[in-house]
Design brief:
two-stranded parallel sheet; about 5% strand; 19 helices
Length: about 400
């Protein structure tokens, strides 16, 4: 039999092996949060940099965001103080984050630019993570809000926070958030999952049928913006991507063919004039366009104060991660083709496809939607256009009129 000293030695070796394996796994954990390409930032810095709050390391410590730091600490205290053993819960949180520090750091693509030591990084992750959880709880359950809380008493504050929390550079590793959610004392009034209360916070700014997008939001993701990106993924993919575009690499000719079909696609008003019916789809996802029997089915397009910032950061995420299909980028480029003028906006509004609540700074008239999509589409270089086959079907469609002569009577 193995003596106690030999068993102890074996246990130590085993613990060291487990630790080594875990460290190697954490090192190869994929980067999922990156800084936005400078070419995009130059076009519109406000759409990529936070205005009121920093989440994570990229904007941590910026002087103009210091005011919100005190509110983070208030929310941390409110969350942990719901049970008498606050210090014990705090210790568990710190231990959990410290054990995940390497993996959490590796989530950020430019981790070498993070100038925080271990204690500073762990503290930042604790405060930011607990703030997010408490914010979601207070948003979902009004009884948890304290009188005079400036985040909820000032209408513009919660809106500005929501804007900052959909920025790519302001994302927080979702796996850390889930681990904290499993440790901190959740009030009895809440029986929902973390994803559910997060969806409640963001649902009004995500386009699409609410039941459909909630199912997608509840899927796995790397961070909160990634969960929103899930809501933009298509329900079906049978008619859109061709076999050629499913390959990782495309020839120059294939790319030209994609561009050709896209360029030949007429605007909404011209499609309408040519006899193609434009119809709004119901109970579908954002990308679930379809074309059947001369009818182009288009999901509802809602424009609001969050639209440009949300689309810009989703596109930046796709450019960073280089997915096989750039779904949101494709969505923006397709709409840029369909909506090119006030005339296009008018016909889509009449069909209840387009709604626009975004007003110009003077508040008098609605912002021009076609200029928004043109601006966004002009800034991107797209390699895999998701709607290639859809464009081909629409472009090649020939309406058969009742007076067309059979081919045998034509000379």
């Amino acid at each position: 039999m193995m003596g106690s000293s030999e068993k102890l030695k074996t246990d130590v070796v085993h613990d060291e092996l487990v630790s080594t394996i875990k460290e190697n796994m954490d090192r190869v954990f994929p980067h999922c949060i990156c800084k936005v390409d400078e070419k995009f930032v130059r076009e519109n810095k406000k759409a990529y940099h936070p205005k009121v709050i920093s989440i994570g390391p990229f904007h941590h410590g910026r002087q103009e965001l210091r005011e919100m730091e005190i509110h983070k600490w208030h929310y941390l205290h409110a969350l942990l103080n719901r049970k008498p053993d606050m210090e014990a819960t705090l210790a568990k949180c710190v231990t959990e984050i410290r054990g995940s520090e390497l993996k959490a750091r590796n989530c950020y693509l430019e981790r070498e630019t993070i100038k925080l030591n271990s204690d500073e990084f762990v503290t930042m992750m604790l405060v930011d993570g607990c703030f997010i959880i408490e914010l979601f709880l207070k948003r979902s359950f009004k009884t948890l809000r304290k009188r005079g809380d400036p985040i909820f008493t000032k209408h513009e504050t919660i809106g500005n926070l929501r804007l900052d929390m959909i920025l790519l550079e302001n994302q927080y590793p979702l796996f850390v958030l889930h681990r904290l959610f499993g440790i901190v004392p959740i009030p009895e009034i809440c029986s929902s999952s973390l994803n559910s209360i997060a969806f409640n916070f963001f649902k009004n700014i995500i386009p699409g049928n609410k039941k459909t997008i909630q199912v997608r939001f509840d899927q796995e993701g790397n961070h909160l913006l990634d969960l929103i990106h899930n809501c933009f993924l298509p329900t079906f993919s049978d008619i859109h991507p061709s076999k050629e575009t499913q390959q990782n690499k495309q020839s120059q000719q294939q790319l030209q063919d994609q561009a050709s079909a896209r360029e030949k696609l007429k605007t909404s008003s011209k499609l309408h004039e040519s006899g193609i019916t434009l119809r709004k789809t119901d109970n579908k996802g954002v990308l679930d366009f379809d074309f059947k029997n001369g009818v182009l089915y288009i999901p509802e397009v809602k424009i609001h104060r969050y639209t440009e910032t949300l689309l810009r950061n989703l596109i930046a995420g796709e450019q960073c991660n280089r997915d096989d299909f750039e779904h949101v980028t494709s969505y923006v480029c397709l709409l840029a083709k369909l909506i090119c003028s006030h005339k296009d906006e008018k016909i889509l509004t009449q069909k209840n496809i387009l709604s626009n609540s975004l007003k110009k700074e003077d508040g008098d008239v609605h912002e021009e939607v076609h200029k928004l999509f043109k601006k966004l589409a002009d800034e991107v270089v797209m390699k895999n256009f998701y709607f290639e086959e859809l464009c081909k079907q629409v472009v090649e469609y020939k309406k058969e009129s009742w007076f067309s002569l059979p081919s045998c009577f034509k000379k």
